[in-house]
């Protein structure tokens, strides 16, 4: 990397940090901090959901699989496309209609405080594993590209993400997610033609790729695995407590449905675009072994991108992958504050609650940093992500989603399904390999993980009795907020996004000075991004003026 790349990374980091910290004075109550005012545009929430999920695995997890096995990495991600459409049609509107701030609040309304507490503590414990696994790829990106010590990278990046999430809340998360989407989409469209040129043409790439490289199913990623992974993704994306925020923080059920549909559309087209570079790198450098394959995506970028643009791509990758971390931090803080602290201190002022929210964000973030240090000891990020998915996904999130539709599920039944499923999954994951020298392969592990809770829930539906749930109480926080205040906060968020896009567009244009061969492309992108930012900013200013005149 050249000096201009490091300068670009620093500038981009400052833009993201400034955008996040600009919401410091806006997250003054619980709903503004955790639900972004409750009326985020569905398009922004859809992009944020995409980035929060996409970022955790694309560059390191799926990039590693694309390098090793080829086209099957795209097949795997198409399961996420299917999940998005299913969630948009069936699940997202149900979450919005629950009118709960968090999944924990829904569980309290439906099943009572005791059941909610069991799930809350279980979720928080397992979330440390998820979030630590998400932080590790961020540090891996920095380590592979710059040679910076991976443990120091975990500390530095974890601290930076922790700061702007603790200060800005969900709006900081959403706005920075959208900025990262714009940056990465622009840069990857440059990586692809440069990679094809580096491999001396698409035909040469196909000719020199391994024999099974373009099979839809490859190695341990069989057709049965893809089916099971699709079911898992419907459950995980539809029920993960962090992602549910994207369905509930829009203005109506129709908008929540659009959030899921936009996620599905993006995953319909993006896998081919994103997985092509690491697939091409397999032909350029087939020597990567073991955990080295986790760096394939970064290596191809280093090889083909011009000076300055590499820094922009790296900065985008870092903060995009960090999106999963800041999403989980905000959600964990919401649960700790709204569902644990507030019931213990019901008379707490908004000022006290916001202080607790920021303190819990910091504490959970520190725990996440600790877990990220342990990822290499567990066999690498691919093993960690897929194992956590298989063991916990269906058991933890499936029962809550089922309860949105069923009148037969009780608190004891869904908790029982979760506990039994987790016990069985953990037994086959850890006990049988040590005691009986028998272990499940990846497909069997995933089938067990999603199959057991579904079978148990179906049995309850067959043999259980119809229950009459108590009337769900209105969300107290929502009732306390003024509509005008929510609208003002949302206008501010869009205004920050517009200004940030203007600055990023200018940065693209500036980089054209160093990237002579790509100058026209970069200038064109800079004009488009700045133009879009100007439109957003102007639209909000015009809307705000009309509101002031009306009031």
UniProtKB/TrEMBL annotation:
Query: Which Pfam families would you find in this protein's record?
Result: SSF
| Keywords linked to the UniProt accession | Cell membrane, Glycoprotein, Ion transport, Membrane, Sodium, Sodium transport, Transmembrane, Transmembrane helix, Transport
Localization in the cell: Cell membrane
Which residue ranges traverse the bilayer? 6-25, 71-92, 118-138, 150-171, 178-196, 216-238, 259-276, 296-320, 355-378, 384-405, 412-431, 446-468, 496-514, 520-541
**Key word Cell division present:** no
User: Which protein family is it in?
Assistant: Belongs to the sodium:solute symporter (SSF) (TC 2.A.21) family.
Q: What is this protein called?
A: SSS family transporter
Organism for this UniProt entry: Cecembia rubra
């Amino acid at each position: 990397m050249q000096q201009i790349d490091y300068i670009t990374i620093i500038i981009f980091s400052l833009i993201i940090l400034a955008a996040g910290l600009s919401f410091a004075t806006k997250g003054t109550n619980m709903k503004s901090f955790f639900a972004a005012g409750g009326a985020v545009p569905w398009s922004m929430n859809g992009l944020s959901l995409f980035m929060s999920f996409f970022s955790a695995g694309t560059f390191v997890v799926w990039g590693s699989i694309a390098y090793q096995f080829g086209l099957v990495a795209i097949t795997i991600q198409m399961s996420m496309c299917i999940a998005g459409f299913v969630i948009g049609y069936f699940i997202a509107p149900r979450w919005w209609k629950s009118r709960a701030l968090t999944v924990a609040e829904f569980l309290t309304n439906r099943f009572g405080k005791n059941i909610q507490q069991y799930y809350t503590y279980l979720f928080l414990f397992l979330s440390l594993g998820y979030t630590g696994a998400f932080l590790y790829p961020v540090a891996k990106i920095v380590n592979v590209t710059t040679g910076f010590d991976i443990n120091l990278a975990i500390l530095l990046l974890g601290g930076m993400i922790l700061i702007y999430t603790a200060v800005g809340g969900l709006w900081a998360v959403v706005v920075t997610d959208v900025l990262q989407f714009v940056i990465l989409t622009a840069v990857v469209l440059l990586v692809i033609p440069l990679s094809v040129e580096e491999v001396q043409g698409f035909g040469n790439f196909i000719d020199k790729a391994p024999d099974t490289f373009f099979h839809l199913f490859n190695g341990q990623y069989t057709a049965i695995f893809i089916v099971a992974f699709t079911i898992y993704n419907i459950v995980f994306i539809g029920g993960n407590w962090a992602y549910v925020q994207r369905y509930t923080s829009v203005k109506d059920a129709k908008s929540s449905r659009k959030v899921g549909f936009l996620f599905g559309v993006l995953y319909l087209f993006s896998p081919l675009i994103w997985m092509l570079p690491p697939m091409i790198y397999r032909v350029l450098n087939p020597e990567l072994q073991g955990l080295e394959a986790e760096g394939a995506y970064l290596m191809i970028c280093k090889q083909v991108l011009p000076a300055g643009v590499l820094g922009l791509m790296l900065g985008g990758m870092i903060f995009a992958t960090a999106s999963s971390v800041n999403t989980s931090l905000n959600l964990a803080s919401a649960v700790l504050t709204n569902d644990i602290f507030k019931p213990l201190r019901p008379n707490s002022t908004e000022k006290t609650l916001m202080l607790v929210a920021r303190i819990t964000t910091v504490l959970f973030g520190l725990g996440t940093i600790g877990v990220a240090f342990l990822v290499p000891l567990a066999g690498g990020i691919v093993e960690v992500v897929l194992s956590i998915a298989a063991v916990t996904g269906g058991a933890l999130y499936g029962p809550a989603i089922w309860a949105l539709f069923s009148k037969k599920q009780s608190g004891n039944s869904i908790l029982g399904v979760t506990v039994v499923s987790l016990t069985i999954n953990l037994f086959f994951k850890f006990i049988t390999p040590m005691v009986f020298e028998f272990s499940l392969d990846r497909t069997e592990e995933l089938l067990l993980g999603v199959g057991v809770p579904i079978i148990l829930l179906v049995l309850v539906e067959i043999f259980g009795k119809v229950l009459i749930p108590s009337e769900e109480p209105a969300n107290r926080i929502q009732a306390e907020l003024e509509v005008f205040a929510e609208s003002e906060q949302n206008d501010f968020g869009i205004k920050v996004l517009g200004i940030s896009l203007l600055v990023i567009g200018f940065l693209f244009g500036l980089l054209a000075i160093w990237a002579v061969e790509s100058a026209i492309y970069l200038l064109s992108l800079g004009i488009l991004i700045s133009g879009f930012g100007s439109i957003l900013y102007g639209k909000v200013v015009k809307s705000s003026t009309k509101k002031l005149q009306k009031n």
